[in-house]
Amino acid sequence: MVDGIVDALAADERVTKTYDLWNEMRESICRTYSEHLPERLPLSKQKEFKPVRNMVIREALLLVQQEEGIAEEPQREADLRHVQHAAESGDPVAMCDLSDLLMKQRRSSEALYWLEQSARNGDPRGQYVLGTWYLKRGNVQNALRWLTAAADLGSSTAQYRLGMLYLKGEQVEKNLELAVRYLTASAECGNQYAQYTLGSLYRSGDGVSRDEALGREWLSRSAAQGNPYAQHLLDHPDQKWSIAAQSVTRLLYHMSRIFEDNCKTDVMNRGLQIDRKRRHQLRERRLALGHKPDDHEDEEIGLH
Q1: DSSP symbol at 301
Q2: Residue from 171, 253, 242 nearest 201 by CA
């Protein structure tokens, strides 16, 4: 899948020209030392451009985070026995934690049981996770039930997810009023993805009254938390950008930097190789003229 994305990006005229230039420079270097030129591989198969693959993966993770409305968090280490004891004692937060641990052990039925217990006992995180579990399986009624319950308890991620559902209108009937209400609640709780979406809506006037100042305020709040899409919109105020378009633009920008860095490295390596070759030639000439191997008096012979 990653190779396919890289190949699709490589079809872009700008990427093609840059990659061709890099290949030409590489072949020019190789001609100095060999008549056999390396095969021109597709960008996705070129080992020297592994950072491109890593970049695609990072961008995909950003897209997932934007879709889910949850920033990446450090993994919490927990002792299964301790968590299970707390869950069995009636702690709804521990019930959700236990569900996470069991899911990692592929004990799905037990994990779902404790997730349901967590949700029924009022843990907003458990309610959110259970809601998304139902949503991914097409059970929209139960998904809305648990996502709404979590949102009512102040879960900014549930509020964001509901806002996006009503905004897109894909699995539920489109409702811009509800969408803005949930997105605003989430944004006010500090959710950077809701802030970005609200900023985009107000700036474009898509479904809401156009308000440049309010749009800029929400985008600035999101960008201050490190959201690259919000920063991109702030940097390009006269352009309309979908998240997908921004991702491609960011990928192309990063690829240009990778090409540039690789070209610089190749030029430096070529210079070092030529310098070594030149030093060897000078040393041979000094020896031929009768100088000792460690005699450096005539270091500059032949340099002019």
Answers
A1: T
A2: 242
